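User: For a benchmark we're assembling, each entry needs the component sequences followed by a predicted structure for the full assembly. Here are entry 17's components. Please fill in the structure.
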Amino acid sequence: MRSYVVHQLAQLVVVVIGISILAFVILHVLGDPVLLLLPQNAGKAEFERYRKLLGLDQPLWVQYWKFASQAVQGDFGKSWYADTPAFSLVLERMPPTIYLTLAGLVVALLIALPLGILAALKRHSFVDTLCTGIAVAGQAMPLFWFGIMLIIIFAVRLRALPASGYGTWQHFVMPAFCLGAALAPITMRLVRSGVIEVLSMEYITTARAKGVGERTVVIKHAFRNACIPIITILGLQFGQLLGGAIITETVFAWPGVATLTVESIRNQDFPVVQCAVVLLALLIVTANVIVDLLVGFIDPRIRVSA
Amino acid sequence: MTAARTGADVAVKPARGAARPAASAPSRGSLRRLVRLKWGMAAAALLLTIVASAIFAPSIAPHDPLAVNIRQRLAPPVWMDGGTPRHLLGTDQIGRDLLARVIYGGRVSLVIGVSAMLLSATIGVLLGLTAGYFGRRIDWVITMVVNVLLTFPFVLLALAVIAVLGSSLSNMIIVLGVAGWPIYARVIRAETLAIREREFVLAGRALGMSHARLIFRQILPNLVSPIVVIATLQVAQVIVLESFLSFLGLGIQPPTPAWGNMLGEGRVYMLNSWWIAAFPGLAIFTTTFAINLMGNALRDWLDPHMKL
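Assistant: Structure for entry 17:
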């Protein structure tokens, strides 16, 4: 178990370093910060002065080291736009994003678990075909379009829910449903195949041979074992879920990290973009590690083989 | 490394579920595959229509997609009160014909989708082959990069890069293409690892074939099916992502018609004129749906056991 944990943590470190290099490269190699900071008609001397001031005349690895060592201390520099530290700006917007992500996950599970199990139990039936069909259609649905259609129907036509904003539970309904509906199809398909696979195992046959009731077989024997791949997958999907949350936020003007990132991109406020990218990555990687550890804890086979 | 392994397993699961019926109930399984193939054919026909209408847009579009007619602005679709047969799907806020714009909008989406896919496939397949064939340190490095990129939401990466590079058609293709390669690399690497040990490759090596010949003439031809399937599904993914970026105003800039920016412009008017946002969205949905159906059918047809 111990080496398993160490292995997981080591991987976390490597991935975070990778992401930080990525965030650094995006600004410093692909673009030139000075070009973005100074007005276009600034003279050559002015450019040189700024370049020195920002330490951009030093070798790239020195610059990266400076960026990384400050980032570790939570110092991503000041926002070029709002004159506050980028870190606190991003941190402030983190809770709404996390709440939305979790709410979306809950909705996705509420849709996917019953339908997935049902489809697996009644394999090749009409119900199964219908569920699979809806799942394929659902996967093709652009999330942001779906969100807009929800707004048109429920906020504009029926006036039942607020179109955007944050605060009460009513504000949560549409964004959470939108995000959940986006994640549900893939989750449903995975639940279905997970349960089908488990149902063909010998211990299920044994349980049935013992005369265990069908309901107990499904809930106690099949579903519990099917949970392991489902948890693993959901953990790995977390990045996609967060990606979905980014899209959902922009549609519903949700005051989370994503809307901040998009605003910052529009304002060319790169310290904030960098900080948001690194912190979101950290969030994803942490979620992945927690899931891996959880699965290793539930299923001893995994931590032994690792 | 475990994440990579579990990730690969994850990808395997749905396909296994789909492949299993063939083993347990042969007649029923093949019947099911046949039905799915039919769906795939229907999807392919639909897709062909969409592609054709994009290619021949100048001859089939009823109006110039950029022609402004302020007197006819915000006209509803023909079946609603106040709709005119002149504008079958209605007009937008400055009186441009929506049907013409939807038809022309497909050009941008398809060009970006296909070009970005070609770029990712080239990068991903080459790196996947390298990692799987040579193994060791180079495999470790490539796998690590794949892991880092796959953990990260594709959307955020694309947003950040577009923000620095600026948005133009070629930048969009480069960004979406470069961001999309890891999935190819992961699948191709896993397949190569297995194929490398097969007898015909060992025989080739014993005959003294060069690495390049082994990789491109012996191994690569065996990987065509997974590449085709991933590529198909990726086109759909890229189209959705491109339209999202355009929707945010970070992609294709107006007045060039693209499904994404039409949706973004239409959002402002959705209170009274829902059709401006609805039809481009419907176009995106139909296209990606057709591509996904076709991709699934291709997978069943080419190789029901494919690890995808």
